[in-house]
Write a structure and sequence with these properties.
Blueprint: E1 2-3, E2 10-11, E3 24-26, E4 33-34, E5 47-49, E6 65-67
Parallel strand pairs: 1-3, 2-4, 3-5, 5-6
């Protein structure tokens, strides 16, 4: 589980790449940009808490829940 702090503005390319045990991430409203590939190979990621405009960065077929 990762809960990013408010004030985080950018998630960089490959920031969480290959975090094989990551199942949940909460992205605060302060995030303005997610670079392509930030979540590549996060095959266990099931739950994402974020704003709807970031859905395109989560193409993992295993994701079951988006919380807005």
């Amino acid at each position: 589980m990762i809960i990013l702090q408010e004030g985080t503005r950018k998630l960089t390319k490959e920031m969480f790449q290959y975090c094989k045990n990551l199942e949940f991430i909460s992205i605060p409203l302060s995030v303005e940009e997610i670079e392509e590939g930030a979540f590549d190979e996060c095959n266990c990621l099931r739950i994402v808490e974020s704003v709807p405009n970031f859905l395109k960065y989560f193409t993992n077929n295993y994701i079951t829940t988006f919380l807005f």
